[in-house]
Amino acid sequence: LPELPEVETVVRELAPHLQGRRILDVEVDWARTIQQPQEDIDLFCATLCGLDISGVTRRAKYVILELAQDNATPWGACLIHLRMSGRLVMQPTGRPEHLRVTWHLSGRKTLYFYNMRKFGRVWVTRHPGQVLSELGPEPLSAAFTLPVFEKRISQRRGMLKPLLLNQQFIAGLGNIYVDESLFQARLHPKRKADTLDKEDVRRLYEAIQATLRQAIAKHGTTFDGLFVRPDGETGRQQEGLAVYGQADLPCARCGTPIERITVGQRGTHICPVCQPLV
Ligand SMILES: [Zn+2]
Fold first, then answer.
1. What is the DSSP secondary structure assignment for residue 250, as one 8-state letter?
2. What tens digit of pLDDT does each residue of 10-60 get?
3. Which position among 21, 58, 61, 100 bears the catalytic label?
4. Pairing mode, if any, of strands 121-125 and 34-36?
5. Distance in angstroms (rounded) separating the CA atoms of residues 49 and 64
6. Dihedral angle computed from the Cα positions of residues 105, 107, 108 and 110, in that order, rounded to the nearest 10 degrees
7. What is the per-residue pLDDT across 191-208, written as a single tens digit (0 to 9) for each?
8. Which end of the chain is least crowded, N or C, by CB within 10 Å?
9. Residues that place a CB less than 5 A from ion ligand 1
10. Please, is 239 exposed, middle or buried when counting C-beta atoms within 10 Å of its C-beta (0-12, 13-18, 19+)?
11. Could you tell me whether strands 34-36 and 52-59 are parallel, antiparallel, or unpaired per DSSP bridges?
């Protein structure tokens, strides 16, 4: 948490507030938040001050503030990874001691980065592609076709759950949407990738895309109160989850109680009837 749909929600909802704003001042309250230039608060702030935010985009689970000089010359980007508990909001909505970075912008706008568990990271770089170079394909991009997925999965042998969590295999999925996608595709998380037939792969491909699209439409999942949208509101997809966090509740498809198992050290939710380990 947050995963692709939550980060996409953050990006879409931040963009109208941030686009075209100039960064006037930056405050950092926890040096280890700054991954590049590593733990150098002064250089981080000096680099950002005076640059303009020309766009707000996403790659995998990264928020990308595209930067420009004088609103025209591309400069690079400020990347933000929320990790477990990071929040990007347009007004103070967390405990003051959890505030790590504050961007003061033109037009009296302020962007706050809260991070209770301190795992979130921020980069400022002229070459964002270097930070993002290891990532696999975007599951909702036009380039991610069924033949592309078929080819990638045919080269793998491991269990499906850790494979889908691997950001180099496919970008943006985490524990929630892997469990949901595997349920929708009726595949057990311990199934080995090399045991899938063509029909299994097609169902998994379609399930991943449908699961992510539905979660984006619902503005993401707020589970354990960790994810909030830039305006402080919660997501609504928690009401639409089929298996994640639903242990002991009846499967919506067959009525069997949902089980919580462990796969590759991750808590995992399945319907034991709909997702047999064949
Ligand atoms: Zn079931």
1. B
2. 999 999 999 999 999 999 999 999 999 999 999 999 999 999 999 999 999
3. 61
4. parallel
5. 17
6. -40
7. 999 999 999 999 999 999
8. C
9. 251, 253-254, 256, 271, 273-274
10. exposed
11. unpaired
